Amino acid sequence: MTYNQLFKLADFLSANEAVTTYIEFEEETSFKEAFGDFPFAMFDEAKAKGLYIVVFPESSVDREYLYNGILDYCKDIQYTSSIFMGIDKDGIDKIIIGVDETK
Question: Who contacts 62 (Cβ-Cβ below 8 Å, separation ≥6)?
Fold first, then answer.
């Protein structure tokens, strides 16, 4: 993620009054331990390390709006950052965004 994308992302989330948290994983950890248990087999082996922003949408409609808004407002973010949206097994909506610097 570039600094410009991070600035635009923060601006977009703030303007939309999104509930967020910021997390840093210094050691590699499982995706499940980091963000919760998602019902997708692709995350069984996934690992998390580094900086992340987790957004907690209020509903599935809000999740879609925020996710699409992020992709539209923060051009090319999907190519320079990891970004995932879904509902964990506890029913909590999340958008998870990796914030590592682009080299």
Answer: 93
What is the rounded CA–CA span in Å between residue 13 and residue 26? 25
Q: Which amino acid type is present at position 84?
A: F
Quote the Cα angle for 58-45-54, to 5°. Answer: 25
- In this predicted model, what pLDDT tens digit does every residue of 70-84 receive, in sequence order? 999 988 888 888 898
CA 100 to each of CA 7, 23, 56: distance values in angstroms, whole numbers, following the listed order:
13, 12, 20
SS3 for 18? coil
pLDDT in tens, 3-35: 889 999 999 999 999 999 999 999 999 888 888
CB environment 49-82: b (16+ within 10 A), e (fewer): eeebbbbebeeeebbeebbeebeebbeebeebbb
Q: Are 48 and 38 in contact (CB under 8 A)?
A: no
